[in-house]
Structure formats: C-alpha cells, structure tokens
From TrEMBL, chain A:
Top-level taxon: Bacteria
Protein name (database record): Predicted permease
Automatic annotation (TrEMBL), chain B:
Cell membrane among keywords: yes
Entry keyword annotation includes Transcription: no
Name by which UniProt lists this protein: Permease
Family, per entry: Belongs to the UPF0718 family.
Lineage: Bacteria, Pseudomonadati, Thermodesulfobacteriota, Desulfobulbia, Desulfobulbales
Chain positions covered by the region annotation Disordered: 302-323
Length: 65, 323
C-alpha cells in the first residue's frame, strides 16, 4: 500500500512539474503547425542539393510530431 | 509524422531533404523543448534541438552526397487555407488570401489546433511516459542502473539497442529520461535514448524502406546512431567539465511559478486529455480493425486530404487519390 502511494505521489510530482510547460508547448506547437505545415515548408525548400537539406532540418526542429 | 514525410517526398522534395525532415521533426519540437526545460535542465534543453538539427543535416547531406539523383520534378504545393478551409488553394493566390484572416483568427485556429490535434496525438503517450517514469522512480533501486548506464561508450550502445526498436515520441520520452537520470544513468546515455527513441522504431523503419529505399534507410539509421553516441559522449563530458551534478538540477524550472498556477495547469491538461484518452480506450477495447488499415498506402496529407475531395469535380477526384 505504501509503495502504491509513493508511485501516485511521484506521478503527481511529474505532472505538477510539467503541465504548465506542456500547455505552453502545445499552444505554440499548434500555431507553428498552422503557419508552417509541411506544404509550406516544401514551398521554401527549393531544389538545391544541399540548401534544401539545411532548410528541411531547420524547419523540422520546432515542428511537433 | 511518416505520412507528412511521405507526402513531402511524393510532392518532389529530394531524398536528402526528406530524411533530414524525418530526423529533426520527431527528435525535437516546441512541445518537447518545453517539457525538457520543465523536467530536465537548461543544458539538455539546448543540446536536444541542436543535436537533432546536426543529426538531420548530417543524414540529409550524406544522402544527397552519396546517392544524389537529379530529377526535375515541379513540386506540387498545397496552398489551401489551413484556418477554416475557405479556399482550396487552386483559384486563391497568396496575395489575395493573405489578408483573408485577421491575426486573431489565426491565433485562435492555431490554439485550437494545438490543444485538440497536437495534444490529441500525444496525450496518451505523454501519460504513458509519466507513468513509466513514476514506476522507475518508485521501484528501481538507486545505483542499480549506474553500473551499466553510468556513462562511457558501453552505456551509449546499450541505450541505442533499447532506443532503436522502441516506439516513443519526444515528449513522452522526456519524463522517462528524467527518471533514469535520477537513478544514476548518465545524462549522455539519457540523451541517446531521447534522440534515438523518437527518431526510429521498427514500423517507421519498414515504412522508410518504402519511401527512401533500403540503401538510404541503412544510411539514415547509421547516421542517427553515430550522431546520438557522439552527442551522448559530448554531453557527459560537458557535465564533467562544468562540474554539475545532473541529478541536483533536474526539474527546477517549475519552481519559478506559484503552486496555484501549477495545480491549475494540471487540471486544464487533464480536462484537455479526456477526449483523446477516451477515444484511445474505445479504439483499444473496440474493434481491432484500425491497425490493419495503415499498411496499404499513405493518405495524401491530413490537411489536404478527404475534406477537400468532396468539393472537387469528378476529374480532380481521380487525381486526389484519397479513396
């Protein structure tokens, strides 16, 4: 019983620590997805052999799954 | 993630750009950056996106350097409206549509998208990650993991072996990494898990073979593994150099906020999770058909897909193969 309580309190601690940041993160993520969806990115990639890779890598960093 | 990359490729992006996008998108995102700052520390918050960018660039450049095939494909870009579908992007030039929606409308659409779709996609995984992190902190004895995963090349290789087949998203892997570090796993080994876990899994690799081919998939996997180990070793070195004990500064970010705000955030997050969690449970306990549908072909694009096909003429319906 003790150990179950400890488990619950650990999970509660993690939720407390992360929820506020999570809320902010998914808000920004939504905005980014509206403004920067894969098709918009494709538009910017161009045909370059190397520049297209750098841009694709760069755009992928902030985009959520 | 994979459907988006498949459509990038289909629409004319080269293989290198596609694999770069396929590395950096799952390995990092604003949501996972935020939660890394909350549960880990500032150093990991910076290193994670940097490592993702460098890995993505290395994978893409290696691909285009080694296996470049010149093709003249005019990219087909979906210019349809992302906010309320007010135009399908065919007779709607950018100049005209740019003023169509106010900033407020865009922000609202983005927020709605974030709290419904983005969170809908990751909510269940997030709770699974938090639950697993709780289990690790509660049940795994201190110093058990330290002997195998306390740092060095060996720890990185063990983490690679664990992370490559595993399916986990960047956000859900963060609390697990925090719990592992708390139990004596070196931050570098945890970073390997954070990088490789989201970037690869058994299903995505088999799909990648279809999109990019065997040779390119092998290159993709090799670059991801090498970069992850490299950054893992660098991070361990940085912690030693800075003289920081990683356990001591975990999860300090949320102390900036008053407890009331934290409680409110938990409540809001749980409320937002009701819908995705119930629909997940329905899928889990209901008919088990959903899993087999995926195998065939990719839908065009989630945003450009089914809804717009209804509006188009018969001819265009054929082009838009979203049957």
């Amino acid at each position: 019983m003790d150990i179950v309580l400890r488990l619950i309190s650990e999970i509660w601690e993690i939720l407390l620590d992360s929820s506020l940041f999570m809320l902010g993160g998914i808000g920004v993520a939504g905005m980014l997805k509206i403004m920067l969806d894969p098709d918009t990115i494709l538009n910017h990639l161009g045909k370059g052999r190397y520049m297209s890779v750098v841009k694709a890598a760069f755009f992928g960093v902030p985009l959520p799954l | 993630m994979l459907p988006a990359a498949a459509s990038l490729r289909k629409q004319g992006a080269n293989k290198g750009a596609t694999s770069a996008f396929l590395v950096s998108t799952p390995e990092s995102g604003v949501d996972s950056i935020a939660i890394t700052y909350a549960l880990l520390d500032p150093m990991m918050t910076v290193i994670r996106p940097v490592a993702a960018f460098v890995t993505a660039m290395t994978a893409g450049l290696a691909e285009n350097l080694l296996f470049w095939e010149k093709k003249e494909v005019q990219p087909v870009v979906d210019r349809s409206c992302k906010i309320d579908n007010c135009c399908d992007g065919i007779d709607c030039p950018d100049e005209l549509h740019r003023r169509h929606h106010s900033l407020w409308e865009k922000i609202r659409a983005g927020m709605r998208y974030g709290y419904r779709e983005v969170w809908g996609d990751i909510a269940v995984w997030f709770f699974a990650g938090v639950g697993l992190a709780g289990l690790i902190t509660t049940f795994i004895p201190q110093e058990l993991l330290e002997t195998f995963l306390g740092g060095g090349f060996g720890s990185m290789v063990i983490m690679l072996a664990a992370g490559i087949p595993l399916y986990i998203c960047a956000t859900a892997s963060t609390p697990i990494a925090a719990a592992l570090i708390l139990k004596g796993v070196s931050p570098g080994a945890a970073l390997v898990f954070l990088l490789v876990g989201p970037a690869t899994n058994l299903t995505s690799l088999s799909v990648l073979v279809k999109i990019l081919g065997k040779r390119s998939t092998a290159l993709y996997l090799t670059v991801i593994a090498l970069c992850a180990v490299f950054f893992g070793l660098v991070v361990d070195y940085l912690y030693v150099l800075a003289g920081i004990s990683p356990q001591a500064i975990l999860g300090e970010a949320s102390d900036l906020f008053p407890p009331v705000m934290k409680y409110a955030a938990v409540v809001i997050l749980l409320l937002l999770s009701i819908r995705p969690v119930t629909s997940f449970c329905k899928k889990l306990f209901g008919k088990k058909q959903a899993q087999t549908v995926f195998v065939s072909d990719f839908p065009q694009m989630p945003s450009a897909g089914s809804s717009k096909c209804e509006l188009k003429s018969e001819e265009e319906k054929k082009k838009c193969d979203c049957s």
